[in-house]
Amino acid sequence: MVIFDISQLSESNPWWIDKKNINADLKIAALNKIEYKWDPAIRHHIHLDKDVILAIRGPRQVGKTTLLKLIIKDLLLNKNVKPENIFFFSFEINTAEELKQIIQTYLDWRTISPNERKYLFLDEICAVKEWSKTLIFFANKGAFANCSIVVTGSHSMDLKHSTELMPGRRGGDVSDPLDKILLPMKFSEYVSLVDPELKKILFDLNLIKKEEKQKKMMELFEGKIDSSLEMLSLHKKKLDSLFESYLLTGGIPATINEYKKTGSLSTNMFNVYISSIIGDLRRYGYKEHYLKQIIREIFNVLSNPISWNQFTKNTDIGSHNTVQEYMTALEELYVANISFKCTIHDKKTHPSMKKVYLLDPFFFHALHGWSNAKKDYFMNAKANLMNLEIKSKLVESVAYNHLCRFSYGLNPRDFFDPKDSICYYRDQKDKEIDFVLMFDEKMYPFEVKYQASISNSDFAAFSSFKKGVLITKDHLGVHGNYVQIPISLFLMLV
After folding, report:
1. Please, are residues 125 and 131 in contact by the beta-carbon 8 Å criterion?
2. 76: Cα within 13 Å, side-chain hemisphere
3. Which of 115, 187, 353, 407 could make an SS bond with 491 (beta carbons 3.0 to 4.6 A apart)?
4. Are residues 102 and 251 in the same domain?
5. CATH number of the structural domain spanning residue 51
6. Which residues neighbour 274 within 8 Å (Cβ) at sequence distance 6 or greater?
7. The pTM is what?
8. 482 secondary structure, DSSP code
9. Residue 482: phi, psi to the nearest 5?
10. Shared domain check, 273 and 146
11. From CA 280, how far away is CA 297, in angstroms rounded?
């Protein structure tokens, strides 16, 4: 075991010598070199003015470490926090005993200023087995007085379950969730990032604030299309073009910048993501060849109701329980989402038959190329968008994941699970609704029809609800009790 002293810890905290050294940090320096610098909204919801243990969860490669460095930079240069009171460490390869020693070494060093607030940023802490016991140890003896702590991890269930073991020890405000989730950019965030002119238009049309967008979304179910959407439709051609790019790069900052700069995505960009997913799963004992077979089968059944038993017929995996374990792991690593069927009479979800969606367009292309042994991942991604069937499933995945985020925005909470509030519906005549949002004891149906023409039959499945939103490729308007809206405009409401 390595014995740590404060000089070793200073290597991860160069601002202890000079606070301006934060600008030379690899993450900050890399951010300064790119054209499109994402400032995730979550950064403005992380409050570190009191004793608290916050957790930031999210997929690999989305920028959690960069987010921490941006917060540190703000504390140093804008809020004039004493540099020695800010501590950062990444725990990718450390043991529980080393975690304990590292925290103790830092806290002992700062006992000289017991009344000054300390800020501890513990990155990728999920890599440390039973890390929460260490934090409980320090919390129980009062060592975290005057400390604001942020922990991050890419494995949601480990981080979630570990923080659940610390009831009453995490502090914070009752009304503010202690678990923050950093996901890839939504399409509206992507538009605001890459097109300042459209960002201004969205601001002028009052399509920036969450509360206003929620209001306009819910009005669709009253058969009302807000005038701001009609005005925005004048810019639909430009939004559609950006949507095509988004379907290629997804909401990952690195992929967006590389594609905007070079017009392509390197094989290395895909490999970094795939390797990180495989590495995380290996860490938890999962087999790569099982994973590849499951991913391949996901693409075969994408957006269709299936049971885990069906996976065993087309893979070498003999048990549906093993399939479920892998699917849960993919869900916990923010690779896939699972949707259950729901019924109107009890407004509940039922897990007998599931649908599977992938979280982000870039993840979609990376995993499709890897599982099908494609030679050129980028060419494969472009081919996916030329294939109407594959593209339609990708668009449906984007709509689903945006609705999950919309649902969270309606009721933010630490124990949010999209399966509880976004489902699919199928009536006794097998008429299916792609998504039903359940909120405040009401059900809001959405159907995706990404196609050139819309007919009366496309609205038929809404009959059980007497209302609904048809997400289309091109059409905006009211059709009886229903509203049809192009996907590129619809996503501006999320």
Report:
1. yes
2. 22
3. 187
4. no
5. 3.40.50.300
6. 366, 367, 370
7. 0.92
8. E
9. -115, 160
10. no
11. 21
